[in-house]
Amino acid sequence: MLAIVARGIARDLQRTCVAYELREREFRPVAASPTATRRASRSVDEVDLDVLRLRALMRVGGEDLVAVSFDGQLRAMLVIEGATVPLSDDDVKHLRALAGQLSLALGSALAFEQLRRYAAEGAALVDAARTILGVNELEPLARVLCSLVKRMVFARYVSVYGRRGHVLARIGYAGSDGLPPPPEELPLEEDAAWDTVLAEIDMPFAASRLMMRADPALEAQQGLLVVGRPERFSKAERRLIDALVTLAALAIRNVELYEQTARTSQALAESNAFKDDLMAMFAHDFRGPLTVISGFSELLLESDDAEARSSAETIIEQTKRLAKLSEDALALAATQSAGFSLQRASEDVAAFVREAVAPLDRERRVTIEMPSEPVVISFDRGRLRHVIDNVVGNALKYSSGPVGLRIAATPEGACIEVADTGIGIPEGEVERIFTRFGRGTNARSRGIAGSGVGLYVAKKIVDVHGGRLVVRSVENQGSTFSIQLPL
Ligand code: ADP
Hints:
Layout: H1 2-13, E1 16-23, E2 26-32, E3 42-43, H2 51-58, E4 64-70, E5 73-81, H3 89-134, H4 138-153, E6 157-164, E7 167-174, E8 185-187, H5 194-200, E9 208-212, E10 223-228, H6 235-300, H7 306-336, E11 345-348, H8 349-357, E12 366-369, E13 376-379, H9 381-397, E14 403-409, E15 413-419, H10 430-433, H11 441-445, H12 454-464, E16 468-474, E17 478-486
Parallel strand pairs: 12-14
Antiparallel strand pairs: 1-2, 1-5, 2-3, 4-5, 6-7, 6-10, 7-8, 9-10, 11-13, 14-15, 15-17, 16-17
Helix pairs in contact: 1-3, 3-4, 3-6, 4-6, 6-7, 7-12, 8-9, 9-12
The structure holds adenosine-5'-diphosphate (ADP).
């Protein structure tokens, strides 16, 4: 468009004309009428030049110069040459009208270009948002913000200050070669308004000093973004910086939340570890005294005194309960600790289960069905014993009839089924019995003692083996627990 105008001027005024466009602090000739002597580019430090200063810059005297501004900024200029005869009043009028029209036309062209730039800016902002919001430490965040702003608005330097007590400390900086960085600290009086403090600070090209709020919900200013460049900002640039600052404020809030969460989870982990250690210590240290108590109580069973014998039986029974509770607590603490792992070895699981069941089956109620061939899988002996103790122990505890134990090799590995004809599990409560401290309502209402921990731990152990612990049950008819273990 500038080319058409340059040609139009040349034709109407019978002179030559060169059109310059201002980009990144440089006037570049973009079009000229055919007879114009092409002029070189001119760089400028400032872009708020009036026509007189522009004339001096372009070293044009008798020639005329039309400055074209848009959006409050100088954008282009037309230099008319070849004025051997001074321009007539009509020519000057014509030229002025042309400048006005040109400004309008350029305005719409620039508006179009700006729209395109907004779209590009939008995309750049989305990228910037991703970058900014992805950083979760304050100083790297400040550095990223500085370099983003610097790149997006062609600044000489950008620095970010944050409030630290009575000073504003520089937490981020992006500068250019040969430019001394702005001060590391800026004093900040308790009650002084930031604007006043900032206005007094001597920083090169501090064209824009923007307040930042760390938390968008906070009224108080928390930080400062200093953008150093000689030119004023256009509205679009201000909007862009504002958007970046808002993003940074959000990111700073994120950083704070992230740090808070990290601190809380650290504290939680410590208190959890303490609780686990405490539980393990109690459970472990219970064993010794319990063994002594049951040992002496068994001696009392041989007493001639019937009352003493009956008391001894009660003591033994309650001691067993306590021992079971402490076993459960110990196993629970083990499953909750971060270091819960298996010590596997490959062996015949059928033989192992048969041996594990023998001490539980004092009343000889368990019938075992197993293949003649060994069923070799890899498992943790100690942990699987705990599972068998619990599942078979429960079958004996929650029923009074026979208990069927079937061990079989399956294509996936091994299956251990424990079937009883006891109280069963009420409908809808199967999920619950595998939860921590979860017990069936019928077990409770019948006053059968229990902690609700055994199956929870057993399921965890089977899960860690990569297997499944499931149950089929009908209340008052019985339950079949099946432990499926992979090869
Ligand atoms: P506890 O037996 O100590 O209560 P468990 O975790 O071993 O804890 O079992 C959880 C609950 O599951 C029991 O309280 C009981 O309600 C139910 N349960 C477990 N095994 C059986 C079973 N064989 N028959 C009926 N109910 C059972």
